[in-house]
Amino acid sequence: PVIGDQLVETVVVDEAVELIVEPTDVEAGTVVEVTAVAVPEALVVVSVSPPALGPEAVVVGATGVVGAVGVVVGTVGVVVGPVGVVVGAEGVVVGAVGVVVGATGVVVGAVGVVVGAVGVVVGAVGVVVGAVGVVVRAAGVVVGATGVVVGAAGIVVGAVGVVVGAAGVVVEATGVVVGAAGIVVGAVGVVVGVAGVVVGAVGVVVGAVGVVVGATGVVVGAEGVVVGAVGVVVGAVGVVDGAAGVVVGA
């Protein structure tokens, strides 16, 4: 049906229909409410024929609110207009090409924002926080239930704390991984964990009692401390200091 001179504010449909709102028939700011009663899953499309009514015109449908140049499709809510805004059960989309798809909340637009049951995606690189948390971009990272991924360099905070790169570690100089199994900082990196492995330029393996930092490294363990290239070792029975070395007994 086409809404003509006699504007019907409430339309009840029992099948898939398209309601075309002509600019000559609807004044700016007019609200049209669409309800699907007989067939709850009926596809209802509310569209505005060009020219658009202007940014102040709003159409209210079964799945949300759309600006004058937008379209709402079905119960999951899709925006295809350049300035449209959809507010519905699955989230909010704001942006030129943003789309909200179903209960899993996926953004396919460069500037879109999705707020839904499983997460938030912001910006071209993207941020995902949710039950499973997936960034679906070229630099994307998949994070577990407790994880947060921010930016291309990546910050992950979660139960296992992993940034997935070529070798399964942080691959950016400014990257940080914080988790129950360890901390990785910088290009050379620091790892503290049950087995503790540093995969930086010098490549040192430290056990459960130690920390290795950088090329010259610092190791702190139950039996000692190593500092610098020539090093200082403090153990249960003494101290060795420098290349010439000083040993102090118990």
Automatic annotation (TrEMBL):
Transmembrane regions: 57-80, 92-111, 117-136, 148-171, 183-213, 225-248
Keywords, sorted A to Z: Membrane, Transmembrane, Transmembrane helix
Protein name: Uncharacterized protein
